[in-house]
Amino acid sequence: MIDVIKTFQRNGDRSRPWIFVVVTDGDDNRSSRSLRKCAEEISRLFTKESSNFLFVVGVGDGVDSTKMEQMASIGNFIYFPVKEFYLLELVFLTIAHKITTSLSLSVGNLSVGNYSASWAEVQRHRNLCQVAIDYALLIDVSASMNSVILPPPPQCFEGHDLKKKYHRGD
């Protein structure tokens, strides 16, 4: 993670928001730093800037969510626990919502339900889809992720064996 953050610092455009998404099982098998030291360094190098967004997605049943939430709290980033990769679409929609609401202001002239804004603010929010960003997606490909990444084999209804029924021997 620190290597990617340093890449942002070397090559990123400071006039743009920086968005960094990490997908992991949370099994740290390479770091020589403690959880606290790593989280503090993330905060110091990346998340202390209000235009930088870090989201860590813990995938699978084996993720130590308590440890990940502690790290997120110290490192000032958002942690999403997800049981299966199939739910990542929902996570990315949530991330997009969090970023766009963070980049827009709330000013009260128009109101709909509990939300209010000036017309200029409505226009600004509409234009957020055109805001340039610097983005990094880091997917953990360590051996411990194999059981999380690989989908289960397809299964037929009980009592049906499609291979046997439709396979023609040579």
TrEMBL record:
It comes from the Eukaryota. Gene3D superfamilies: von Willebrand factor, type A domain. InterPro entries: VWF_A (IPR002035), vWFA_dom_sf (IPR036465). Residues 1-99 form the VWFA domain. This is VWFA domain-containing protein. It comes from Rhizophagus irregularis (strain DAOM 181602 / DAOM 197198 / MUCL 43194).
